[in-house]
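Work Package 3 (structural annotation) set out to generate three-dimensional models for the target panel prioritized at the project kickoff. During this period the team completed the workflow that converts sequence records into discrete structure tokens, so that structures can be stored uniformly alongside our sequence database. As a representative example, we reproduce one entry of 168 residues exactly as it appears in the project archive.
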Amino acid sequence: MTSYLVKFSRKRNWDILQFDWLVRGEVQSDPITDLRTKDGKLSVWEIDEDRSNLELVLLALACTRWDLDEIDFGLFNGEVAQELGIAIEHGRANTPVRRANPYHRNLTELTVSRLANFVYAAFPHIEKERRLPGEVTKLILEAWSGEVKQDEVDARLREKIEQAIGTQ
């Protein structure tokens, strides 16, 4: 069973909430607005069955940002996309963590209804996780002088990492 990681803007958008107006079995609209598609594609990352590459992928995501904020993400079963007829395209990412880039995928040919169906199917089963700022900082610091191509990291993030290194 292949699982995929999708980055959230806010983990809270994926919490199961009950509202008086929400019909049982329905999902509020927040998860759809949380997924950022571009050209009908949604960026996801293939995660090994034993999750041995999860921290590597999180490192890659952390190194593409400009701050040491938390990372919210979800893990979903790839069969969800396949059952909905959503194609999964292999495509390398362009992050400062070269070893992570081959794990990048795109859910492709997404329409509004396909994306809504994906959220509806994945929502009840998605494993929501968060890495706090301290965990993100530690993850980057541990890999900074080896795994990370430092010159490709945003200057604002580099400065914050250098400050964190200086306080150790």
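The mean pLDDT is 89.
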